[in-house]
Amino acid sequence: MTQRASIGEGRPAQTTPLCTALELAAVGVPVLPLRQGKVPFGNCRTCAKNACGGRPNMKNAGPCRCPGICHAWAAATTDPDVIISPAWATAWRQAVCVGYHPGGAGLTAVDLDNPAAINWARETLPPTRTVPTTRGQHWLYKGVMPSHNSVRPGVDIKSLMSYARWLGPGTGTMAELPEAVRALAVKAPVVRPTQPTLTVPAGGAGGVCRHRTPAYLERGITMAEQRIIAARTAIHTTVYRTFLAVLAAHGRCGCLTDAHVSRLFTAAQAKGETPRHCTDAWTNARTRLGL
To answer: How far is CA 94 from CA 73, 88, 237, in A?
Structure first.
């Protein structure tokens, strides 16, 4: 991994996709040419519309046995003879950039597509090597996992059976793939308002309710929902601070009900927070207030 992480450092960038591809292949990164739109070249005539019976080499990246570049990410290879073969020559002449198979290189790329996704990663994931992209960043980790799209707003995972655009070696020390990234691929259960995730014990710490009308509490919960829904960045921080404010105002007198908690959790999950994140934020807020 150290060798791969040093690709391109300290030297001028290569001027053609083919040269870049050969340099990457030499250090064990499976590559393939990408055409306009940053997409792979289509299957050859023999395999058009999967006429060959399906995509070969689904478990391990490697060249298709057909006479041309085929089967998207599965065509990625480290074999220089294949890369410079006549069958690939036309594709390299038309290529606009180089793609690589992260899983085949032992990597997972967390694709952050906008500033909000980057802020979420900085608050949630361990730091690692980062690569700037057109609209955001790729965070690279050592380790592989299944690839998934849209695991949360603006976040895709590219590893096994996927390809990514090569945009340079990036900066920073590459960390091991954390459980926080693996957990993103696990579909979170839906929290329904009638089945709240957490319950606030009635009576809190034995305090007396100082709210003269139910409307005061209702306005507070409504404002908290609106604050979460209106957040554009730092979603997890906003959720935590909102939970903290609600508990500071209403957590000790016992007026909060399961329905109120469910409303807050539902608003947070609508912004992409998982039930686990909601539970952690709520628990941390209660702990800070001594509830």
So the answer is: 18, 10, 46
